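Data availability (excerpt). The following record was deposited with the supplementary files.
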Amino acid sequence: MATFVPRNVFPVLDSLPRSYFLGHHKAGLAKMRTLLSHIDLVIECRDYRIPLTSRNPLFEENLAGRERLIVYTKQDLGSQGRQRDRTRERLIQDFQQPSVVLFSDYKDKSSIHKVLEFVRKHAATANSLTGSRLMVVGMPNVGKSSLLNALRGVGVHKGKVAHTGAQPGVTRKIGTTVKIINGEGSGEGVYLMDTPGVFIPYIPDAEAMLKLALCGSVKDTIIAPTTLADYLLYHLNLYDPSTYSEYEPPTNDIVQLLGALARKTGRLKKGGGPDLEASALWMIQRWRNGHLGRFILDEVTHETLEAQRIANETIGFSLNQGRKMVKELRKQKSRQKYLNTL
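Predicted structure:
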């Protein structure tokens, strides 16, 4: 039997959408700027599975001037607690200095206590009688609301106040502040404000768009589910092909795997044919929930971290530049459609 050889490169399509910057993203960012003078600390959430790709330079541009705590959420979905995971985390922490970096799983109280401890110490230095005000920001669906609920539950033993969901866009407006730490003496405590996720105006790297979509930062209707499932298969094969062995032997053929999944899970169309799209969505959701391996999609090294920093500085990622890039991409698509009709 021939030895299985996984693909070492994924053929990214130039036709993939490169933006998911919606109206409420722009409005939310503008509102954040107006509230910044009342904020003592910004908590920026990033997805542990895509630590480089889930960084949004818009926050550094528009929310400059406030101390920032970076929290990599969903640690449980990308880490197995091995030495290589700890080494990668230390590398990220060192690179992000002077900002403090923490890693969290909203279901793990010990990681939530670490965030609360940092926030408590920060609030103590402010020494304000009116309490400390914080703002949590991040890309869509990186776990901001889940973190807020966890901080409130552990900090003041109160129930959930922020709605959460599997798809991005659950939080569309900036909410009221909620208490996460009770005050001591005459102090008012610490309050945290939830905000809508804000996407990058333009993603120059098509593979970065695939990573964001696979992690749920854009709606599942934006990129074809079979394309996302194929990208997931590419990573599963590099990580460990046995993760899907109960459905199919190792393969690079996504149609073959989805067909096997459909038959094993009963996702069939009328007439008995496999429902490939439904099977792709099920496969993607299984990975998002940690049932098809726990690994990250970004390569994290000194070189990749530095390359990302230089790329962000070069592109700038301003709103105007983003709009211009999106318009130009649309023009190119229109021209191509016209040429195809000739």
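Summary of structural features: The chain has a mean pLDDT of 87.
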